[in-house]
TrEMBL record:
PANTHER family, per database record: UBIQUITIN-CONJUGATING ENZYME E2
Family indicated by similarity: Belongs to the ubiquitin-conjugating enzyme family.
Compositionally biased spans, kind Acidic residues: 141-164
Pfam families: UQ_con (PF00179)
GO molecular function: ATP binding; ubiquitin conjugating enzyme activity
Domain UBC core span(s) in chain numbering: 1-133
InterPro entries from the UniProt entry: UBC (IPR000608), UBQ-conjugating_AS (IPR023313), UBQ-conjugating_enzyme/RWD (IPR016135)
A single GO BP: ubiquitin-dependent protein catabolic process
Lineage: superkingdom: Eukaryota
UniProtKB keywords: ATP-binding, Nucleotide-binding, Transferase, Ubl conjugation pathway
Name of this protein: E2 ubiquitin-conjugating enzyme
UniProt lineage: Eukaryota, Viridiplantae, Streptophyta, Embryophyta, Tracheophyta
């Protein structure tokens, strides 16, 4: 069913998994890649799944800290006839294409979107550039706690070690 997506199960279960999601074409989020956490309730498919962004996204209807998505729309229209493809091919693309600042989970994003749309667009693009790349979406949870400085330090340390190893190799 989800063969067009990269899906990673959690604890070898079928009720919790992560899915790689690409920002929709012709949206501010185009080119971004997010890891989406999906949790299926016991009553699935009669009850809608819980979904959230694992890497940061700047959007009025997504909580910046937890990545939770306001599912009012999907809960009101959810039907057992839907499958998970509806979430990834309809719901999430529509959410990113048509943000609703009048029902925010991220008040700062909603306020900025209404007051200064150009600055809002710039901030969305900055978040995509900084947090929505392949390395961000595929990073293990334990690595997410690294700061930018830690990553730079690790990279320079490993390149120094590589130079040392190369310098000590036998001819």
């Amino acid at each position: 069913m989800m063969s067009d997506y990269v899906v990673e199960t959690i604890n070898d279960g079928i009720n919790e998994f992560n899915v790689e999601f690409h920002g929709p074409k012709e949206s501010l989020y185009e080119g971004g890649l997010w890891k989406i956490r999906v949790e299926l309730p016991d009553a699935y498919p009669y009850k809608s799944p819980s979904i959230g962004f694992m890497n940061k996204i700047y959007h009025p209807n997504v909580d910046e800290l937890s990545g939770s998505v306001c599912l009012d729309v999907i809960n009101q229209s959810w039907s057992p006839m839907f499958d998970l493809l509806n979430v990834f091919e309809v719901f999430l693309p529509q959410l990113l294409l048509y943000p609703n600042p009048s029902d925010p989970l991220n008040g700062d994003a909603a306020s900025l979107m209404m007051k200064d749309p150009k600055q809002y667009e710039q901030k969305v693009k900055e978040y995509c550039e900084r947090y929505a790349k392949k390395t961000d979406a595929t990073r293990e949870d334990s690595d997410e706690e690294l700061s930018d400085d830690d990553v730079c330090d690790d990279q320079s340390a490993s390149s120094d070690e590589d130079d040392d190893v190369a310098g000590h190799a036998d001819p």
